[in-house]
């Protein structure tokens, strides 16, 4: 079993996930594909959880994992130790995205309910009366159009992808610790067979 190859596989897999979280976070700035005033955006958009947390902070360990899985100076115990440190940072960043995305889902979007004033109409919902499970209530938001669906889809994507990133980074922490202790690869021993 090669801990280096496992690290490289995880690192390569993290890149598209990080790109997807950045795109999903950026789309939250344009509800229903429209440009609106910054003060009309939900406050959870401004935490940059998909851009920084599940994006940039996950790219750091991903780069190191790919390096640790290849040939050369990074493919050693020191490289694997660095993947442990950076994967812990990636876990924290992706975990941050999980928390903010969950809060964004539960609290609901900022919207105009028809009187020209932007409010959070779903902020005081109880667990039994949550807007997520009552689609009839979504029509209370008039502007931006379909902002409730927009936020639910994008925050759900961010929540799901960042949860996967947390799991992958934690796997790499364990894999990296094994790589530090045992080395990056258990090499096959060559058996010298000589004919008599």
From TrEMBL:
KW Transmembrane helix (keyword) present: yes
Membrane-crossing residue ranges in chain numbering: 12-32, 44-68, 80-106, 152-182
Membrane topology, from the record: Multi-pass membrane protein
A GO CC term attached to the entry: membrane
Keywords: Membrane, Transmembrane, Transmembrane helix
Subcellular location, record wording: Membrane
Primary location group: membrane
Matching InterPro entries: L6_membrane
Family: Belongs to the L6 tetraspanin family.
PANTHER family the UniProt entry points to: TRANSMEMBRANE 4 L SIX FAMILY MEMBER 1A, TRANSMEMBRANE 4 L6 FAMILY MEMBER 1-RELATED
Protein name in the entry: Transmembrane 4 L6 family member 1-like
